[in-house]
Amino acid sequence: MIRVDNLHRHFGGFRAVDGASLEIAKGSITGLVGPNGAGKTTLFNVIAGALPPTSGKVYMDGEDITGLPPHELFHKGLLRTFQIAHEFSSMTCRENLMMVPGGQSGEKLWNTWFGRKRIAEEERALRAKADEVLDFLTISHLADHPAGAISGGQKKLLELGRTMMVDAKIVFLDEVGAGVNRTLLMTIADTIVRLNKERGYTFCVIEHDMDFIGKICDPVIVMAEGKKLAEGTLDQIKANEQVIEAYLGTGLKNKEQVG
């Protein structure tokens, strides 16, 4: 579904992404891991249109989407979430979901005068869909709560809910477990798997929690120094000498020699 070819993103002399090439298969939940500074979030930002690449290409279903802005990618079904949830804190959880779909009739001044019936019908449909999404996420009891007053993990669930309000094809999740308690993290993991199996979502997940990655992701891609270092199952990744060296600074062979 997504193909990245020799992608670079430089900040002056710093090569945050330095020749990354990888593929994310349709229908997969792909994990993206690596040490801090490996270029994972920068790669997400380039794919999702938040940053232009220095060079290289990004393809979605064979179409060149390199450098397209986020709103165009949104309409193509490519969405992303952030390490820190971006909710509208004074609005309710339901309202946060209802405002996601674009092109609503109420956005046009003309319709507020002469299309009130159409606006009311759209709002009823959006409200029903938002309530369905909240129920799917098991947070329907928070529908009328201000989004800024719910927990960090519930905000991450709400972000997943936003992707359900449109026809998402692939969702990039940046450290979905950051600041989330263990119980709610497993709820988030179960929700991602359900969206994948029941609604056909493709996911790419940045996460440092290997238990979380192991529960939901196959394959797992490892980045180091701005490029792909390895790919495989989590067990294969854990046994990979280059991966161990990238994380720990020394490999098993060196450890054995020291021993």
From TrEMBL:
Its EC number is 3.6.3.-. Pfam families: ABC_tran, BCA_ABC_TP_C. One of its GO terms (molecular function) is ATP hydrolysis activity. It is an enzyme of class 3 (hydrolase). GO terms for cellular component: plasma membrane. It comes from Tropicibacter naphthalenivorans. Coiled coil: none annotated. The gene is lptB_1. The keyword ATP-binding applies. This is Lipopolysaccharide export system ATP-binding protein LptB.
